[in-house]
């Protein structure tokens, strides 16, 4: 056994191997120690070879496994992964000379572990930024020359710091080593993000789509720094915006295209140093760490979809939470590795079961006292099976009954945050319209998908009744309830609905000249419709006519005749669904409680009569579509108000005037942005034949295209 060595390098892989090559070539007495027997054997048999674009170094070395460390060590250069720090340092407790010390060459904040094992005063800290990788046993690649700094943990420059700085390649002493470590931790958060993808470091850092994410990760770490962060190699904490361009150039010139974290995840399939990063970060860093761990467990692979998901989390925090649209961010969501929705992030209205998540229903008591769902609702399971990332739950009006609980903030409108996002699927609409995610699930009993879509300026589709399963979804009125989709555009709505409803391929979108549109002129002329809303819908109709569409007027009376049965059906069923909870007078907010209790006065006989009357009226309503492909009218009579009007108010009655009919008929109905009134979005509504959702989506694709061409 070796008994006395001047310098031991524990961890002779990437950084340790490069340092060893330089030290041995300079004539230093160095012993290498590594836990990989194959690497140790190669070092002893063939020497250490450092390759790469910087220079080539081949030196003879002596290497041992940890069990063969010498009895007496004067100085240790510690270059193991951060999560191996304790196991690497513990054997030194009896071996380190009385005046000996450990120099940490690691990423991360490992000093506390070293101090805990060896006691205070036994550590010098180094900051190392050159890129390196183990490419074969005994062979290490050095990718570039970069900043190396050495300092005392508490600040200042001591004699031993000067000695180490003279020993290490490229090193300089610093009185602010902690500032360098925190800057490296911030840069490291960026690098960890690149590692979950299949992009090179330079390509990921240079992609404009990920710029807000990368800057947010760095800021999240720097905001927690107890020392003044220092600039290095293009990274400047005082100029993060400019740093990205410099870092792209720095990494593009390096011989190391990807991080060691990426190699651990994608090639070696072993744990990374993510726990160290997770320990210093905030919400976004925690999401990144959860993704890394999912890859470590084999639940995900390194691909760009992971970066897209992280970018969505960044938007969720930056944009979604100020709009009061977010209930919970869901880390590293489980999903299929392939599918038609791979790379699509989907928010779910917080009344739909997501495994492991409490179904909050827009109610503080339910949020605090509810139990996590034991399994996904079928609609959520279908999203996951299609490859979608179910990444957040979205805010809603209380129990989807049409009123905001006073203990929670109402979801705000991205077009004007002083206005409501609508209800009851307002959080879902706000997240989509704000660009946080491309799609979200909502529910619709009388317009709860389509009204928020109109207010916020996105697409919202209520499918044919019973097309999408409602199991695992809080019921309001089972005869009228639907689960549907809010999306950034018709194509995305079609993709998501196609996956959860198993629609199959859509028919080709018809040419405008082949499209037959039934205009509900009486709705457009209704005195409740505000002039700006009427003008926007009328302008959209004129554009369709100009594109060659066949527009004919259709009498809305058969649909309006159904409205009389809406209230007895809704109120009777809503009370029966929520009667048990209402036994606690403090459970619901006052508006919701009042609305639900209206159903106590509706008798079973009145409910049965309403259902029978609906059945009698349906054939006449269905006949409205006999000679047209779609019916078209305004989605809502007005643009988004300041708050959602309760259903039993005058404004509440008007709000659902044009949407409730499709719930009674079970027709698929889709809302499409068609303009603006004083800067607030206006939507038009399209309705199609029951069971012909795909045809409705195809027609909507054509109409969306015509409207976009006109405004391009």
TrEMBL record:
Transmembrane segments: none annotated. Residues 8-152 form the Ketopantoate reductase N-terminal domain. Gene3D superfamilies: Amidase signature (AS) domain (3.90.1300.10), N-(1-d-carboxylethyl)-l-norvaline Dehydrogenase, domain 2 (1.10.1040.10), NAD(P)-binding Rossmann-like Domain (3.40.50.720). GO terms for molecular function: catalytic activity. Residues 332-697 form the Amidase domain. This is 2-dehydropantoate 2-reductase. It comes from the Bacteria. It comes from Microlunatus flavus. PROSITE patterns: AMIDASES (PS00571). Belongs to the amidase family. SUPFAM superfamilies: Amidase signature (AS) enzymes, NAD(P)-binding Rossmann-fold domains.
